[in-house]
Write a structure and sequence with these properties.
alpha+beta, 4-stranded antiparallel beta sheet, 7 helices, 10 strands, 21% strand
């Protein structure tokens, strides 16, 4: 599944092509994705100008502005609309240049054609992704976003705030930091790497992680995610950048996917356990 670094790199790859452009046409597949495409989505987006792109958790947010007082959504929704894209388990986005003669692929489900001639195509073989729109003023209260915790790379995310959200929770710390209500975007790969670098056992109860350990964990979350973004994310199965390139952070993984390999820190074998239905990789010697 694309995690925060993968979604961030995809979003950044779309900015040069989409920002400032006018949406000429929108195509929605008949089958929809995790849920049907919102009724009237194409009509609301057609003719709108893309002002900026952003990310919230694992959602790519495309901020659009109507073409005027009689634009496609100005009267009904105000003058700012967000197109929200979620890649689900296997989604990827392709950018087709005006001269590109590529044929549609089997699992293409959503396409935006820009006035520049570029096309942005969402392909999702497992159809767990989502595409929907919402008025920008409703972002904080929308059901997809209202429950989300802070962004891990923001100043808002710090050890004191994390301690307050963890409270006396008795769940394993790995499960806790993957809870989107506590902090967004720390998926399975990066949770394993963060806890290894911080020297914290993934099985330790969240409420018993010390203040010093929380400070180091917050520090490592920011470091690991920034390093992953700079490397284009991790390509283990489906992840591709919009230009078709791979992510390369998987080459820097210390524990994830390395069961039985020697720990680079102590030489002990990396172990794998199952937590919450997900594989956890860790070093029993380095992570007490």
């Amino acid at each position: 599944m694309p995690e925060l670094p993968e979604v961030e790199t995809v979003m950044r790859g779309l900015i040069p092509v989409m920002q400032g452009q006018v949406i000429e046409d929108v195509w929605c597949g008949k089958k929809g994705l995790r849920s049907p495409f919102p009724e009237g989505l194409a009509e609301r987006l057609s003719g709108a100008k893309i002002e900026k792109l952003d990310r919230r958790a694992k959602y790519i947010l495309v901020y659009c502005h109507s073409k005027g007082p009689h634009g496609s959504f100005a009267n009904a929704l105000g003058d700012s609309l967000i197109l929200s894209l979620h890649l689900g388990m296997s989604g990827r986005i392709r950018i087709l240049a005006p001269q590109d003669n590529s044929q549609p692929e089997k699992h293409d489900h959503f396409k935006v054609k820009l006035a520049s001639g570029h096309e942005i195509v969402l392909n999702d073989a497992r159809r767990f992704g989502m595409v929907f729109d919402l008025p920008s003023m409703q972002l904080p209260t929308h059901k997809a976003f209202s429950h989300l915790g802070p962004e891990p790379l923001s100043a808002e995310f710090d050890a004191d705030g994390l301690a307050a959200r963890l409270g006396n929770k008795m769940v394993p710390i790995k499960k806790a930091i993957m809870d989107q209500r506590i902090v967004v975007g720390v998926g399975n790969i990066y949770a394993c790497e963060v806890l290894y670098r911080a020297g914290i056992s993934p099985m330790k109860q969240a409420g018993r992680v010390s203040g010093e350990e929380l400070k180091e964990m917050v520090r490592q979350i920011k470091i690991v995610l920034r390093e992953a973004i700079e490397a284009g994310g991790s390509t283990l199965k489906d992840h591709r950048l919009p230009d078709g390139d791979f992510g390369y952070f998987q080459q820097k993984l210390f524990v994830y996917g390395r069961e039985g390999a020697e720990c680079s820190g102590c030489g002990h074998d990396i172990k794998r356990i199952i937590q919450g239905g997900r594989s956890t990789f860790y070093c029993p010697s380095c992570q007490s």
